[in-house]
C-alpha cells in the first residue's frame, strides 16, 4: 500500500470513491458500514489539491482505495457547516488552548473502499495526513454525524481522537473531535 498526497490525475478515482460512499448515493446495504456526507465537485477536489495539498490517498497498485481530506479553515470557509464551526472556535477549548483558525485545521471527510476497512489503511492514512498537516497546525478538528456510529468508533476507539463536545447544525447532531497532531497514531 502506498500513502501519498493526491495529484490532479487522481481526481477521477477520488470522485468515483466519493460517489460510491456518499450518503445520497450509497446503497442501504452499505450505509451501516459508514459513509461521507459532504459532496465535493472535481473542481473542489482540484482546489484542495492545488491550494492545500489537502487530499491524502492510499493506493493499492494504481488504484485509489481511500482518501482523507484536510485543510485550513480558510479553505473550508465557503461551506455553511464550516462557517458555523469557525464561528464557534473561540468558544471551544482543546489541549488547554482556545481554538482558532491559526492553531487548528479541519480534517475529513475520509472515505475507504469497503474491502479495506478494518485493516491498517485507516490508521496509516490518518497518520500520513496528520504528519503533513502537523507542519502547519498543532490541532486537528473534525466532526462526525451522530448517525454514523462506525466512523465515530473508528476515530475514537481506533485512532484515539477526543470528543470535545456535541453540536447541532441544520437539524443534524454532530460530535466535534480533536487530536494533537504531534502524536503519531499508536500501534502502527
Order of helix and strand elements from N to C terminus: EHHEEHHEEEHEHEE
Percent of residues in helical segments? 25-40%
**CATH fold name, please?**
Aminopeptidase
Tally of discrete structural domains: 1
State mean pLDDT (0 to 100 scale). Answer: 91
Instruction: Name the CATH superfamily classification.
Output: Gcn5-related N-acetyltransferase (GNAT)
Provide a short characterization of the protein structure:
The protein is of the alpha+beta class. Helix content is 31%, strand content 30%.
Kindly describe this structure.
With 188 residues, the protein is of the alpha+beta class. The chain has a single domain (2-180), classed as Gcn5-related N-acetyltransferase (GNAT) (Aminopeptidase). Helix content is 31%, strand content 30%. It contains six helices and nine strands, in the order βααββααβββαβαββ. It has helices at residues 11-21, 42-52, 73-76, 80-88, 121-134, 149-158, and strands at 2-5, 55-60, 63-71, 93-94, 97-98, 104-112, 139-145, 162-169, 172-180. The two termini are 14 Å apart. The mean pLDDT is 91.
Keywords:
seven-stranded mixed β-sheet, Aminopeptidase, 188 residues, alpha+beta, two-stranded antiparallel sheet
Topology:
Blueprint: E1 2-5, H1 11-21, H2 42-52, E2 55-60, E3 63-71, H3 73-76, H4 80-88, E4 93-94, E5 97-98, E6 104-112, H5 121-134, E7 139-145, H6 149-158, E8 162-169, E9 172-180
Parallel strand pairs: 6-7
Antiparallel strand pairs: 1-2, 2-3, 3-6, 4-5, 7-9, 8-9
Amino acid at each position: 500500500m502506498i500513502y501519498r498526497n493526491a495529484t490532479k490525475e487522481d481526481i477521477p478515482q477520488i470522485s468515483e470513491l466519493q460517489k460510491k460512499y456518499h450518503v445520497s448515493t450509497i446503497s442501504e446495504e452499505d450505509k451501516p458500514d459508514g459513509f461521507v456526507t459532504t459532496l465535493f465537485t472535481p473542481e473542489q477536489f482540484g482546489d484542495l489539491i492545488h491550494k492545500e495539498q489537502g487530499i491524502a490517498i492510499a493506493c493499492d497498485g494504481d488504484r485509489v482505495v481511500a482518501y482523507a481530506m484536510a485543510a485550513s479553515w480558510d479553505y473550508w470557509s465557503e461551506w455553511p457547516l464550516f462557517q458555523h464551526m469557525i464561528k464557534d472556535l473561540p468558544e471551544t477549548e482543546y489541549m488547554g488552548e482556545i481554538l482558532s483558525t491559526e492553531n487548528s485545521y479541519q480534517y475529513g471527510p475520509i472515505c475507504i473502499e469497503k474491502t479495506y476497512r478494518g485493516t491498517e489503511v485507516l490508521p496509516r492514512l490518518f497518520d500520513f495526513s496528520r504528519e503533513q498537516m502537523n507542519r502547519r497546525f498543532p490541532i486537528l478538528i473534525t466532526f462526525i454525524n451522530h448517525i454514523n456510529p462506525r466512523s465515530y468508533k473508528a476515530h475514537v476507539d481506533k485512532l484515539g481522537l477526543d470528543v470535545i463536545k456535541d453540536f447541532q447544525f441544520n437539524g443534524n447532531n454532530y460530535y466535534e473531535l480533536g487530536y494533537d497532531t504531534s502524536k503519531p497514531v499508536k500501534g502502527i
